[in-house]
Amino acid sequence: MKIFLVGFMGCGKSTKAKQLASRLNCPVIDIDAVIVEREGKTIAEYFELHGESGFRNLERETLRTYNYPETCVVATGGGLPCFFDNMEWMNENGTTVYLQMEPAQLVSRLHNRQKRPLIRDMDDEQLLAFINMKLAERNPFYYKAKLIVNSFDLDAETLEQKIFQQ
Ligand code: S3P
């Protein structure tokens, strides 16, 4: 079983993916980290060189070409589900889980913005407005996930139970 974690920046995809993979005793794959390793560049550097559309193409390609083990947990970038038919692809190839969080909670968790090119120069107020705007755009994609869970205060054991209860 492949489990794809989706959700906005700061909702805890990477951390939860690691915890869940350790509980399931399977590999964890972080699409952003795969891109950084393959390209030898940070996400911010890639954005600067190729723009957002270049990054979205690479993200799409990476999602589809990665050699996934049969069982694994995959953390995706916050925008990945919202471009091309990536959400459909993930639904066809695994179980998708939307880690949902309130905009104010996301702001409070997004301290380190430097590595995130879309929000790196924003203060808290600008970030809150940005999150509200982006969530309106992105939620229709995130809501295509097979499972939607409130990610705030969610521990890995509960997450595992919810995934396997479905
Ligand atoms: C993005 C989220 C980032 C990264 C890139 C763009 C987005 O991943 O893919 O900076 O569009 O929301 P995280 O959600 O892991 O921060």
Structure explained in plain terms:
- The protein has a single domain (2-160), classed as 3-Layer(aba) Sandwich (Rossmann fold), CATH 3.40.50.300.
- Helix content is 53%, strand content 13%.
- It is built from 7 helices and 5 strands, in the order E-H-E-H-H-E-H-E-H-H-E-H.
- Helix 2 (31-39) crosses helix 3 and helix 5 (103-109) crosses helix 6 (124-142).
- The longest helix has 23 residues, at 43-65.
- 28% of the residues are buried.
- Residues 9, 13, 32, 43, 77-79, 116-118 line the site of shikimate-3-phosphate.
Short recap of the structure:
It is built from seven helices and five strands; from the N terminus they run βαβααβαβααβα.
